[in-house]
Amino acid sequence: MKILLSFVAMLLLFTGCNNAQIAQTTPSEQVTGETAEAIFAGGCFWCVEAGFEAYPGVTDAISGYIGGSAVDAEYQKVAAGQTDHYEAVKVLYNPELITYQDLLEIFWRQFDPTDDGGSFVDRGTQYKSGIFYQTEKEKVLAERSKQGLIASGIFEEPIVTPILQAGTFYQAEQYHQNYYKTNSAHYKQYRKGSGRDQFIERVWGNERMYTIARQLSTAELKNILTEEQFHITQQDGTERPFANAFFESKEKGIYVDLISGEPLFSSKDKFDSGTGWPSFTKPIYSHALTEGTDLKIGYPRTELRSAISDAHLGHVFEDGPLPSKLRYCINSAALRFVPVEKMVEEGYGEFFGGF
After folding, report:
1. Which is the catalytic residue, given 1, 264, 329, 335?
2. Is 329 noted as a catalytic residue in this protein?
3. Do residues 99 and 142 both lie within one domain?
4. pTM score
């Protein structure tokens, strides 16, 4: 695998591999209780595993192989380029402590996403990068994250990391698991010689370690929100029609979650419903919203909440214009508006097209 492996170490690795049993899993929603999983490839799986396990909320990172057409995978064949598998890592995490979006941010900081021929000193398709999604939500989040990285201008060269549907994940041989702990001296020697850390430091600097956003407490929300904003987002309130910030606004831009900043709606999909509340035909991303049944006024309505912050937003009704026939009726006090001229500056450059 690694150029800096000594002859003795290589011999030990290959001897161990001949006796190893390889576990495999197939993709699914992969959520059991408080555990979810995600799969990434960023070159040497020793390094990627160590990178993810440095963050709270990640319960385990498992080195393995994915993406190949062969019915199995083992280290000698993958490392020699005899299969089309990637070295990859399956990350097990608690979604209440760390989100898939957080994992994507951590992932981008670990390798060179402009390298299409391998990763640092390790060359070949087995060391190329990739995001392997297991659900449509993961696919959308990964695509959005990649577009955000492109729009940031951090890298001058094109981002070539593909977003691929996950197939069978083969767990790597046991001696590869937690290699950075069990063979720390050799791991540090390899990592230093590979150029990975030097690259990360040069590109990311003080931002090389990602800061995980946490949910604000009720007391903190009371301090940062106005009384009306708190009542609507946290106590499922409804603001007065025709007397709110955005019901008649025609300014171009996007509307984001007041608390999390998650993009929710675009002015391109806004229309005058005559109801006195901001109305949209569709959200930017359907996964950004969660739906539930609201019986507070005696008959069922479909309530909308932000998937990330869990803030109450409003309701969706089936009396909108064609083609969706949907009306997303949203409280202005649950939104923050980002005008088109500030979208790039505030990190929403990926939504700039079309205005």
Report:
1. 329
2. yes
3. yes
4. 0.65
